[in-house]
Amino acid sequence: xxxxxxxxxxxxxxxxxxxxxxxxxxxxxxxxxxxxxxxxxxxxxxxxxxxxxxxxxxxxxxxxxxxxxxxx
Length: 72
Hints:
- This protein has 72 residues and is mainly α.
- The chain has one domain (11-69).
- Helix content is 50%, strand content 0%.
- The longest helix has 10 residues, at 18-27.
């Protein structure tokens, strides 16, 4: 069972997990330091991912989500 449910887990919660931060940084270096994250931290991961998909290169969001889903 995955560690996080993207529909109920906020982005803020994900960013408290060093393993998740490492995954974000692996696929999009510097993303966790982006000041725009403050606006989406209260959103569910699903909502934040939908917004990020428009700002990140193709494939990055899917790669991040797939790797976070493997965490138990």
